[in-house]
Amino acid sequence: MTQSIFLIGAPMDSGKAREGCLMGPDAYRTAGLARALGDLGHDVRDLGNVAPDAVDLPQHPHLHELPRTIGWTQALSRAAESAMARAVPVFMGGDHALSLGSVHGVTAHAATQGRPQFVLWLDAHSDYHTPQSTASGNLHGTPLGYLTGRAGFDGFPPVAHPIPQDQVCLFGLRSVDAPERAALEQTDIHLHDMRAIDEHGIKPLLTPFLDRVAAAGGALHVSLDVDFLDPSIAPAVGTTVPGGATMREAHLVMELIHDSGLMTSMDLVELNPMLDERGRTAQVMVDLCASAMGRRVFDRPTPRLL
Fold this sequence. Notes:
Elements: E1 4-10, H1 24-30, H2 33-38, E2 43-49, H3 66-84, E3 88-93, H4 99-112, E4 117-122, H5 143-147, E5 168-173, H6 178-184, E6 190-193, H7 194-200, H8 202-216, E7 219-225, H9 247-260, E8 263-269, H10 280-292
Parallel strand pairs: 1-2, 1-3, 3-8, 4-5, 4-7, 5-6, 7-8
């Protein structure tokens, strides 16, 4: 099925202390994301990069770049809500704090359509902290806390439509700290760590969640973090955790998403080209995005030497 797709750059680097993710959008462009999606027959437009709003707040003594992160959240929420009216937006990040804004905006759009918003979070981490619970002060670990309506996000845009916990699925977990674990155990969020994936496989775990989205007539946002993947195949991320998804597993996830026909928006986050090997990780992420948009096994080109 041909779709209109908007590529939206979010060169956001304020969600954590380690720099480099601001180069992510251009790495995706260089790796040929627009071409890969266009070759599938989609109508693809690159809208360029979003810029953060100016926010007149003092720096926080513990939270890294709080004012700038709020500025990004405001700007990305507007961009997301606007894009959703016309296309499937793909947000090229940028660290995972960009989801504070991207998912805020797509959820606002879903509310205007009377559709429930679901989120599939493909990540080694749960990102369920609040500004008060994060020990590191890095706000890229807080998006799901914010989007599900946890308290403590003073200064951020109000979350008028918190995503119900049972409409969130965390898939690929393998690094969750004690405060997050304790908080998550009190929720109805669907949690699938790598042990569950090893024991049961991808399809038996993911399909029931996709079926729930379909049954509810929901909109599905997919947030794909580089560290969902094993660092042996995707090294360009500052939060590497061994034991991640293999290429075969990740492609199966993407193909199941495409087969469902449910995805309405997507994030590609945490790519740090400074840590990459000749563009290897950027190419992997482009290939996975293409699979989510309809590329099949027999469509995949032979990887070229970079």
